[in-house]
Write a structure and sequence with these properties.
By secondary structure, this protein is an alpha/beta fold. It contains eleven helices and 14 strands. It folds into two domains: about 1-155, Rossmann fold (3-Layer(aba) Sandwich), CATH 3.40.50.620; about 185-300, Elongation Factor Tu (Ef-tu), domain 3 (Beta Barrel), CATH 2.40.30. The strands form three sheets. The protein has a six-stranded parallel beta sheet with strand order 1-4-3-2-5-6, with helices on both faces. α8 (about 160-170) runs antiparallel to α9. The two termini are about 35 Å apart.
Length: about 300
């Protein structure tokens, strides 16, 4: 898979099947759209292209928003789905493009698009005016074969990134996993903490959370940790360490069966099930006892 920017389109000559969108999370709906794009490309002797933004436009207008996937995570997930090219757009360089100009200048003239696959609720162009109806009205002008993928339902809900963000914020990581088609995860570097976990017998890896990455609700989760090519069952904590009187929210994990130094390394935490809320205990001994219970429950669930 090759990553393109707008300047690369001057020398781009392949004919393509294209899909365009935000693709935050790469959920089961996104995967269906991408699979259809790849299928049409292969069956018609075309290259497949996914067009998305390097930084989602909504972050320019609502900087307090959070994302299901960082750019690196999104690219990694897409790379496993058979796409030939990703075109990464920088929002400021296309911000003023009307919907018709976006299609003509970028998709038709730039990417030599012969086929276009989009989700049923996709909008594009200045002010989000572009949609499937606009494309249908101009289909003869652009000579595009258009496919509009209908919603994908999971447990009666039409899957969307917005729905999944709501599940994550509520700590409903099992529901999020059904909609994503994979466990929700956070990738980050291990940073030095206060060492309290080690002092009470449960050393933890403290994770630097990437900017704008959405964290699940505070609490204790059963999950997995991937580091150095190995996978460990993990007890994952998100919260403020109320028992210790801390105020800063943190993400940390106790890797069951691991004993080593991973400071400065990048790891991935996958959330499988929420075990309990965060709570303040009356003593360190009470906290230690509850952590032991949490770990035993997590091992029963995941081993």
């Amino acid at each position: 898979m090759q990553i393109l920017s707008l300047k690369d389109l001057k020398e781009f000559h392949d004919e393509t099947a294209v899909t365009d969108g935000g693709f935050d999370g790469i959920h089961v709906g996104h995967k269906t759209i991408i699979a259809e794009t790849v299928r049409q490309a292969k069956e018609n002797g075309l290259k497949s292209v996914l067009v998305t933004f390097r930084r989602p436009p909504r972050l320019f207008f609502q900087p307090e928003c959070y994302l299901l996937t960082t750019l690196d995570e999104k690219i990694e997930l897409i790379s496993g789905l058979g796409i030939d090219y990703i075109l990464l757009l920088d929002f400021p360089e296309v911000r003023g493009l009307e919907a018709e100009d976006f299609v003509q200048d970028i998709l038709i003239d730039g990417l030599n698009a012969k086929r276009l696959v989009i989700g049923f609720n996709h909008h594009f162009g200045h002010g989000g005016r572009g949609n499937s109806e606009l494309l249908v009205r101009n289909i003869d002008r652009w000579r595009l074969f258009l496919t509009v993928v209908p919603p994908i339902f999971v447990d009666g809900f039409p899957v969307s990134s917005t729905l999944i963000r709501g599940f994550i914020l509520a700590g409903r990581v099992e529901d999020a996993m059904l909609c994503l088609g994979h466990p929700y995860f956070v990738t980050g570097e291990v940073i030095e903490g206060m060492g309290v976990g080690r002092q009470i017998g449960f050393p933890t890896a403290n994770i630097a959370v990437p900017q704008a990455k959405l964290l699940p609700a505070d609490g204790v989760y059963a999950g997995y940790c991937e580091v150095d090519g190995e996978t460990y069952i993990a007890a994952i904590f998100i919260g403020h360490k109320k028992t210790l009187g801390h105020n800063k929210r943190s993400l940390e994990a106790h890797l069951i069966g691991f004993d080593g130094d991973i400071y400065g390394k990048k790891l991935r935490l996958k959330f499988i099930r929420r075990i309990r809320d965060e709570r303040k205990f009356d003593s360190i001994d009470e906290l230690r006892a509850r952590i032991s219970e949490d770990i035993a429950e997590i091992k029963r669930l995941l081993e």
